[in-house]
Amino acid sequence: MAIKTLPQFMRERHGSLFDRGRADCYYSRDRAPHWWPHGTGNGRKIEKLTAKEVAEYNAGYDNQEANGDKKEW
Fold first, then answer.
1. How many CB atoms lie within 10 A of CB 9?
2. By the 8 A CB rule, do 60 and 20 touch?
3. Rg (CA), the chain
4. pTM of the shown model
């Protein structure tokens, strides 16, 4: 199976690594690589990740940082 077809690597999928990285950055949270297989807040949060998974989370975080869009509290 190609890596991009695994759910954690589907960038448009709610709860994916990329999605969670972007959300953490948007809400000005520290980096804490994780993902949710059943969508954010549903089921079990996955925090034990491979190097490729951490890189995908960081790509989402960095993408949001470059975008500059942050939650205004």
1. 17
2. yes
3. 12
4. 0.92
> Which amino acid type is present at position 47?
E
**Could you say which DSSP state residue 69 is in?**
-
Break the chain into its structural domains and give their ranges: 1-32
**Tokens 């969508």, residue?**
39
Amino acid at position 57, single letter = Y
Residue 66 CA from chain centroid, whole number = 15
pLDDT, one tens digit per residue, over 61-72 is 999 999 999 999
Structure tokens at 8: 């954690």
Residue 28 and residue 42: Cα distance in Å, rounded? 22
